[in-house]
Specification:
Largest sheet of chain B: 9 strands, mixed
Number of domains of chain A: 2
CATH superfamily of the largest domain in chain B: HUPs
Strand content of chain A: 5-15%
Structural class of chain B: alpha/beta
Number of helices of chain B: 14
CATH topology of the largest domain in chain A: Aspartate Aminotransferase, domain 2
Helix content of chain B: 40-55%
Order of helices and strands of chain B: EHEEHEHEHEEEEEHEHEHHEHEHHHHHE
CATH topology of the largest domain in chain B: Rossmann fold
Helix content of chain A: 25-40%
Number of domains of chain B: 2
CATH architecture of the largest domain in chain A: 3-Layer(aba) Sandwich
Radius of gyration of chain A: 21 Å
CATH architecture of the largest domain in chain B: 3-Layer(aba) Sandwich
Mean pLDDT of chain A: 94
Number of helices of chain A: 13
CATH class of the largest domain in chain A: Alpha Beta
Distance between the termini of chain B: 38 Å
Number of strands of chain B: 15
Number of strands of chain A: 12
Strand order of the largest sheet of chain A: 2-8-7-6-5-3-4
Radius of gyration of chain B: 26 Å
Structural class of chain A: alpha/beta
Distance between the termini of chain A: 35 Å
Order of helices and strands of chain A: EHHEHEHEHEHEHEEHHEEHEHHEH
Largest interface: A-B, 17 and 17 residues
Mean pLDDT of chain B: 93
Oligomer: heterodimer
CATH class of the largest domain in chain B: Alpha Beta
């Protein structure tokens, strides 16, 4: 059996997504800017995808820009601030993905006062600290919908309300890469100004994402050329990617057992490790935990050791975040949560998909139980 | 007239009656290096020639890595009868160079109508009159136009330094303990340079070390094999001895006892390979297991000479060689190897052999060693 539990790193495109993209490349390959009828058809399909995304998020379909993925969408939203010559304050939460953190830090070198919003022990934004950080000259607040390492669901509604009270002109940018389709969100009702999403985290293809933005947002082009995407992102549209994304949204199972499977895994792991089991993040069965991510530690087995042991069983999980496998360090998110070092060094991130089955969860738990018995013999001194 | 590579060898000149043996070995090694480029290789008049290769540059790079080759020159071979044509070609080859030059003729065909000084003067005068920006300096010239009169005339200006040393296979066989760090590939290179055929042993502690760590060592072995004409790499499953040492032996002797196991296993593999010595990358005092006392303890179980060519080198000197031979970047990849995973906090730096022997006496040494040797995976790189 194969059990892929790293769906927050990427997902396997579904058959219907692969088919939609193949069809597009075989027969629907026309350039949407061309004048003849088949090109117009393609243009209509792009518009349909914008409609679909806008409907999911309660946003305006005219304000959906396709990008190469989440990173580009975040960069577009954040770096557009560079044209604001007033400077001012920029806030981002300490556990933001590098796609947000790094462009925010870039702003620091360009006349902005950039500050980190701290987390509490469960990995959630500390509202008292945020309140203290919000100044009238705050221009931008970046908050992820769901933390990619811990699955913590950020209190966007409360943050938006605080923004309205203390710095109403500040834009609120939400990185929705780990939340889109897995949790509902209403951008209009919440007062979110921009939202980044990615295709390959929801069984769509890699290389496609979108930035959805409101009327208050002034974007600056980051690629100049033929004027596509309202002159904000020139270059022929990634049509197969966009149609793959559309199919992924359409076929995403609204009703699924992710939460139940996550708790099934949680309960088994707690049973296996007993006192040595720690959850890193919000209470997994509570409303502040995303349904698809469980970050936990089985002390004293180090993350990478368990990951290498599980790969032989075709069980694939991540340590903290898949983006950092080439850098050996304890995750900044777990550090910000003040997770003790030996617990952090054992942290595993399980991320589920709507297609994960209870049998796969049981299989993974059996494998973990077997390895835990063997691997706990050795503890780093 | 044709282009070829003229190869010069160094130390083999010093050989007496057995020089043909070394020459034969060197020609064979050059043939091996040239094979991917389809060139012809022959020995004539104390020079090795390569012609008709598909890619001159790549072929020269490959030949410059053959131990025993002192230097090589991209040369023109032409008819020696037409001295005017020789002068014309020489002037053409000097075109574009500026500064001082001289002509250095060598006439091994003593029937040739001109003497070497005559050739120097005639060709030198011709070049001086048919090029711009060059003046003659016969004592310290910046460029030397070499004209060798043998069966044909050979002309060359550029001399590329090669690795030197002795042809692989003329110095017997030895087995290298290859870790994945910076030092051991350099140690292998240095002994290989003396004509020694190298086999290598790597200790893999899955799942404490990863597939990437193993791939890294395979890459290092490949890089080394460009010089060493192929390496037989044994990957030894080393988890069981490490765990057993960790559980049963005093912590401060952990690394040392582990090193003694490595020596025993490597020596057994060396015997299988017909190798008469081991090679390590150790350097005095670099880490706790590399004090003189510790080295005495590891040597005690090797049962054959242990060559440590880096014993007196500083890290910075070792890095310089690693950069030169192209292994440094690979060595710096961050994947843990078995030595670092199980490092004790306070290793013994001045161990006494009888204490170490006593500390490991509780282990089934022969059983553990044999299991490792039998479980070793052989890769030919």
């Amino acid at each position: 059996m194969e059990c892929y539990l790293d769906n927050s790193a990427t997902t396997q495109p579904t058959e219907s997504v692969v088919r939609a993209m193949g069809d597009c490349m075989r027969t629907g390959y026309f350039n949407p800017s061309a004048l003849y009828a088949p090109a117009v058809q393609v243009e209509k399909q792009l518009a349909a995808c914008r409609e679909l995304i806008a409907a999911r998020l309660h946003a305006d379909a005219k304000r959906v820009i396709f990008t190469s993925g989440g990173t580009e969408a975040d960069n577009l939203a954040i770096l557009s601030l560079l044209s604001d010559r007033r400077g001012g304050r920029v806030l981002f939460t300490v556990g933001e993905h590098p796609a947000v953190r790094v462009p925010c830090e870039y702003l620091r070198g360009h006349g902005f006062d950039v500050q980190e919003i701290p987390y509490d022990g469960a990995g959630l934004v500390r509202m008292d600290a945020l309140e203290a950080l919000m100044t009238p000259d705050t221009r931008l607040i970046c908050v992820m919908q769901v933390n990619n390492e811990t699955g913590a669901v950020m209190p966007i509604r409360e943050i938006a309300a605080l923004r309205d009270r203390l710095c109403p002109q500040a834009l609120l940018h939400v990185d929705g890469v780990q939340g889109f389709m897995r949790l509902p969100i209403d951008l209009r009702a919440l007062g979110v100004d921009s939202y980044a999403l990615s295709g390959h985290k929801i069984h769509g293809p890699k290389g496609i994402g979108a930035l959805v933005y409101g009327e208050r947002v002034k974007l600056t082009a980051r690629a100049l050329g033929g004027g596509q995407e309202k002159n904000l992102r020139s270059g022929t549209e990634n049509v197969p990617g966009i149609l793959g994304l559309m199919e992924a949204i359409r076929s995403y199972p609204a009703e699924n057992a992710m939460q139940a499977n996550k708790m099934r895994l949680h309960d088994r792991l707690r049973e296996i490790a007993g006192e040595s089991f720690y959850v890193n993040g919000p209470q997994p069965d509570g409303p502040l935990a995303a349904p698809h991510i469980l970050n936990c530690s089985l002390v004293p087995v180090r993350s990478e050791t368990m990951i290498y042991a599980l790969e032989a069983d075709h069980v694939y999980v991540a340590a903290g975040s898949a983006c950092s496998s080439h850098k050996q360090k304890v995750s900044t998110v777990l550090t910000a949560m003040q997770v003790p070092r030996r617990v952090a060094e054992s942290a595993l991130r399980f991320s589920l998909s709507p297609f994960t089955t209870a049998e796969q969860i049981d299989y993974a738990a059996d494998c973990i139980a077997r390895h835990f018995e063997m691997l706990k013999r050795y503890e780093r001194r | 007239m044709r282009q070829l590579i003229l190869i010069r060898y160094g130390e083999i000149y010093l050989k007496g009656l057995n020089r043909p043996y070394f020459m034969h070995a060197l020609v064979e090694r050059v043939k091996q290096a040239v094979r991917p480029f389809g060139g012809k290789v022959w020995l004539h008049d104390a020079r090795i020639f390569v012609s008709d290769m598909t890619d001159m540059e790549a072929c020269m790079t490959a030949v410059s890595k053959v131990f025993g080759v002192h230097s090589l020159c991209p040369a023109i071979e032409m008819d020696k009868a037409d001295f005017n044509a020789i002068c014309e070609k020489a002037a053409e080859m000097m075109q574009g160079l500026t500064g001082t030059f001289k002509v250095d003729a060598r006439r091994s065909d003593k029937r040739y109508p001109m003497t070497s000084p005559e050739i120097n003067m005639e060709a030198g005068g011709y070049i001086l009159h048919h090029t711009e920006g060059l003046t003659v300096d016969i004592h310290k010239p910046e460029h030397v136009m070499n004209i060798e009169i043998r069966d044909h005339a050979y002309l060359y200006v550029k001399v590329i330094e090669a690795v030197g040393g002795m042809p692989v296979g003329t110095g017997g066989k030895a087995t290298l303990l290859l870790s994945g760090g910076i030092d051991s590939p350099v140690a292998g290179y240095m002994i290989g340079k003396r004509g020694v055929e190298i086999s290598a042993v790597h200790f893999h502690s899955y799942p404490y070390t990863s597939e990437r760590a193993k791939e890294k060592v395979i890459t290092l072995a490949k890089q080394l094999s460009e010089y060493c004409c192929g390496i037989r790499l044994y990957v030894v499953p080393f988890t069981e001895p490490q765990l057993t040492i960790h559980e049963k032996c005093p912590e401060e002797y952990g690394t040392l006892i582990m090193r003694r196991f490595m020596m025993r296993i490597a020596a057994k593999i060396a015997e299988k390979e017909g190798a008469r010595a081991l090679i390590t990358g150790e350097s005095i005092g670099q880490v706790a297991s590399q004090t003189i006392e510790a080295l005495c303890c590891t040597d005690a179980v090797a049962g054959m000479p242990v060559f440590r060519p880096l014993i007196g080198n500083d890290k910075i000197e070792i890095i310089r060689i690693a950069e030169k031979i192209g292994t440094y970047e690979t060595s710096c990849l961050p994947y843990e190897d078995c030595c670092t995973v199980f490092t004790p906090r306070h290793p013994a730096t001045h161990p006494k052999l009888d204490h170490v022997e006593k500390a490991e006496s509780c282990l089934d040494i022969e059983g553990l060693v044999n299991a490792c040797v039998e479980g070793a995976e052989l890769l030919e790189v």
